Amino acid sequence: MRIEDEGRTADTTSSDDDSADDATFRVQQRPHGKGPAAHSDDEHEGNDGEEEEEEEPLPHHNPAPEADLARKTSKPYRPPNKPAINYNARGKFEDIRRERRKDFRAKQRDAFDWRFHTRFQEDYYETVITSKKHPVTDDQWIDWNYMTKKKDPIFDQVIAACDRQHIQKIMGFRHDWNKEIIAQFYATVYFDDTDANPRKWQMVWMTEGDTHSISYLDFAIVLGMDNHDLNRPKIHLE
Description:
The protein is of the alpha+beta class and 238 residues long. Helix content is 29%, strand content 10%. The radius of gyration is 21 Å and the shape is globular.
């Protein structure tokens, strides 16, 4: 997937090693206390000089503890006297909708946490997204080959229904993911669809404090969709 980053471009690729991919996005301490507390596994006390038994390596499908940290979300840094606005409270829906329609790039940065640009983004991240017991679900991908080989009548009906709706490719899309990065995406994403030409519409978001963007067209191609899918209803506009 080709992603634009404020004038730069980069290619992102998939990895079958979940722990390696997740470890890339560990939340690290930034200078001057601007960020979540850092985690270190370097210090380890011995047992009075005795040799320690070497631990057996964890299975490949079970990530190491440091990689598991990247599967969690971290609350934003903020001064003690600056509480978050609770956007999960009753009557805040219209405030959220209004803020979502604003291009955060046009505003002066006022966030306390380095991962965000605006106070709204970090408050929404803290009070709406990370306040949930499961901010990001563990749903993964559909193995259509497995379902087809089963020759199960119910499976066959599901496969046929998804094929009619042109959603087989997106439901079978397989890529490593990271819960912290997903939470940051939903807290910061801005849908720039103001241009008269739909092919110029784009999504803009922040990942670990950096701004990225991708056009609707390129995003559809990455997910295996056709050009006609650009004409389907946009859920975020409802």
